[in-house]
Structure formats: C-alpha cells, structure tokens
From TrEMBL:
Regions crossing the membrane: none
Protein name as annotated: Uncharacterized protein
Assembly and interaction partners: Interacts (via lumenal domain) with lysosomal protein MFSD1; the interaction starts while both proteins are still in the endoplasmic reticulum and is required for stabilization of MFSD1 in lysosomes but has no direct effect on its targeting to lysosomes or transporter activity.
Function (record text): Required to protect lysosomal transporter MFSD1 from lysosomal proteolysis and for MFSD1 lysosomal localization.
Location in the cell: Lysosome membrane
Segments forming a coiled coil: none
Source organism superkingdom: Eukaryota
Family: Belongs to the GLMP family.
UniProtKB keywords: Glycoprotein, Lysosome, Membrane, Signal, Transmembrane, Transmembrane helix
Membrane topology of the entry: Single-pass type I membrane protein
Pfam families from the UniProt entry: NCU-G1
A GO term from the CC aspect: lysosomal membrane
Length: 225
C-alpha cells in the first residue's frame, strides 16, 4: 500500500466494523476535527474513489455519522450525515488527475496536438498505513508520495484562528473562522526542458438548490493551469 503521512492525529475509518476497514490494502477514510469558538471544523480525506478532501463547519456539539456500507459501494449521496444540523462554509475538492505536458510556448496552456501528454489518475490509493509527523502544529497536513514521479502531493488545511493578513498576500485577510487549502506538488522525474504539470479537479459547493459544479481553466492567478 501507499504510505500517507499526516501531521495531526486523523482517525482511520472512525466507527467502522466492516471487513473492508480492517484489510490492509483497501481505500480508506481519514477524519479529524478542530473546535473554533462555538463551531467545529470537520476535515475528511478520502481515498475511497478519487482523492477527495472535504471540509464541513457545524456547531461544536455535532458528531458525524459515516455509512460505510454505502461508501464502499460508491453510493456517496447521504453517506456522511451531520445529525440535527446543516453544515455551513463547506466544500469538497476532488483531485482527479495530474497532467504532465510540454509547455513549449511557456504560456501555461496545453497544446491539444502535444503527443507527450501523460495523465496520472489519483485513484486506487490503498492507503492504510499512516505515519504521524510531530511538527507541533494544529494545521492538518496530508502528504501522499507519488512513486511514479519520484515526488509527492501535499495538501494543507489552513485556519489561523485569528484575524490576520497573509504576509505574502496582504489583501487576503483571515478571521478566526477562515480556512483554506494549500496544495503543493513536487516531482523529480521528468525529461523535457519545459515540463509543466496541471491539475484536473472538481470543486463541489453545497447551495440552497443543492450542490453545484462549476468549471475553470485556472486555479488562482490566471496563469496557473
């Protein structure tokens, strides 16, 4: 199995007594939470299908219920319940694949005629070995080694817990209830001089009329593909 490193004590398949949760080479669900004032932030990393990171904000007394029979059957609708409360400020990020391509024009765009494009799908991750890194932080960090690229993928959930301005981006002001994701990718195995990597991902946001999916060609700065 892959070895996944986490920096805070995530619980592996909490409350699950199914055989699938006990076998070493199955996908898994990792859960952690953090209380901020009257709220509880629930953090879930799932390798049950494509690599998915979910964050839910509820009242601090809320404890989630996981339907593992549904989860392992890929019936995800309603498989995670938050009794007697409706989560707010919540989202799920599905990291579907990494795309390696030759950015010969150095413009951040993938040439449809590029014959060197290679896709690395973030699926079939049988990660049941967890190593906790004691780096004295409350900021959850989830690191997945990518052996095929001699690299790694790291996802940090950031919530400063206070009102501050980000040092690198002064216009970004956070409050005690603010949280966001940092995604870092490192690869050491490529040969083309202008190799670039892109993500294909889905951001799912719950709304009044149900979850909605939107698309974008860029992540944050109108240059990063």
């Amino acid at each position: 199995p892959n070895l996944i490193y986490t920096s805070v004590p995530f619980i592996l398949n909490p409350g699950c007594d199914l055989v699938e949760c006990q076998e070493p080479n199955n996908p898994a669900l990792y859960y952690a939470n953090h209380v901020i004032g009257d709220d509880r932030i629930h953090m879930i990393y799932s390798t049950l299908d494509e690599l998915t990171i979910s964050i839910f904000q509820t009242v601090k007394t809320c404890v989630p219920i996981f339907n593992y029979s549904a989860l392992f059957s890929h019936n995800y609708t309603g498989a995670i319940q938050f009794p007697d409360t409706k989560p707010s400020n919540s989202f799920s990020l599905v990291l579907r694949r990494l795309i390696q391509f030759n950015d010969k024009n150095d413009d951040g765009f993938i040439d449809p005629e590029d014959k060197t494009i290679t896709s690395y799908f973030l699926t079939n991750i049988t990660a049941t070995n967890v190593t906790f890194r004691n780096n004295n932080t409350n900021q959850p960090s989830f690191q997945l080694p990518l052996n095929s690229l001699n690299g790694s993928l790291t996802v940090d959930i950031m919530y400063p817990g206070e009102t501050v301005r980000e040092s690198k981006f002064p216009k970004l002001r956070t409050t005690p209830k603010s949280y966001f994701l940092n995604i870092a990718f490192q690869a050491n195995k490529f040969s083309l001089p202008k190799t670039r990597f892109a993500f294909e991902f889905y951001l799912i946001l719950p709304g009044i009329d149900g979850s909605k999916i939107s698309s974008s060609k860029f992540i944050d700065d109108q240059y990063t593909p």
